[in-house]
Amino acid sequence: MKYSSIFSMLSFFILFACNETAVYGSDENIIFMRYVEKLHLDKYSVKNTVKTETMAIQLAEIYVRYRYGERIAEEEKPYLITELPDSWVVEGAKLPYEVAGGVFIIEINKKNGCVLNFLHSK
Questions:
Q1: Out of the domains of life, which is the source?
Q2: How many domains does the chain have?
Q3: Under 8 Å between Cβ of 83 and 53
Q4: Is residue 47 one of the residues assigned to a domain?
Q5: Do 60 and 102 lie in a common domain?
């Protein structure tokens, strides 16, 4: 069974790899990715793309700058970070004398870098 699924996968890959009109992001490529994902071939799948605290902070800063602007991203440094089993939670920090207003909170999926939650408290 294992060999037949690997053979099928390789045949599928060769079929589309030899196709000169293949377009990146095409339906065929997406179908192939889903097929490999269903086979649970860990060798070919990406796990924990966001592996480090530093990377999580960099991603959070990109999202915050895009959504709230440069000023908010800089004002709420240094960022506080919490590691959960499947995600990173990054929060902005305010100095004690800056009691008015809230901070951003963003949760980023470790596996793929997607934003799971994103808000700014008041």
A1: Bacteria
A2: 2
A3: yes
A4: no
A5: yes
Q: Is the pTM of this model over 0.85?
A: no
CA 68 vs. chain centroid, Å, equals 20
Is residue 31 one of the residues assigned to a domain? yes
- What's the chain's length in residues? 122
Q: How confident is the model at residue 52 (pLDDT cuts 50, 70, 90)?
A: very high
Kind and range of the H or E element at 4?
helix 2-17
Task: Indicate if the pLDDT at residue 63 is higher than 70.
Answer: yes
| Domain containing residue 68 | 53-120
Cβ atoms of 111 and 48 closer than 8 Å: yes
Is 93 inside a domain boundary?
yes
d(CA 39, CA 8): 11
Relative to beta strand 104-109, strand 115-120 is antiparallel
